[in-house]
């Protein structure tokens, strides 16, 4: 299964990124057909109950957003959580905010040195993936 990476954003800045440090990401979803509804555990699917996100039937980890996926067919992709680390070092400079270069969407490092570690995640813009 492919794991999506979500990150925590610092308080609103000039780039309008939202402070979501209080949000619990464990059960949040994106994509799917549930408009961001949280995972419901356990959920029933094809004769079995699942207490975690599933790694089959979809290209990414997913969960049901109701207690019975077989009946309702509502789902979303599960999120993993790793916070932004500010400031972070990249391309010869320190950055105190999400950056928009070298990738199609704003991003940040999840360690203090992206150049060394290469760990990153996309930033959220007003609570949705950008």
Automatic annotation (TrEMBL):
What's a Gene Ontology MF term here?
heparin binding
GO CC terms for this protein? cell surface; extracellular region
Q: Does the keyword Nucleus apply?
A: no
Q: Tell me the superkingdom of the source.
A: Eukaryota
Q: Domain (Fibronectin type-II): give its ranges.
A: 34-80, 79-125
Q: Which SUPFAM superfamilies match?
A: Kringle-like
Regions that span the bilayer: none
Q: Which UniProt keywords apply?
A: Disulfide bond, Repeat, Secreted
Specify whether Repeat is a keyword of the entry: yes
* Major subcellular location class: secreted
User: What is the annotated localization of this protein?
Assistant: Secreted
Q: Which family does it belong to?
A: Belongs to the seminal plasma protein family.
Listed name of the protein: Fibronectin type-II domain-containing protein
Q: Which organism is it from?
A: Pygocentrus nattereri (Red-bellied piranha)
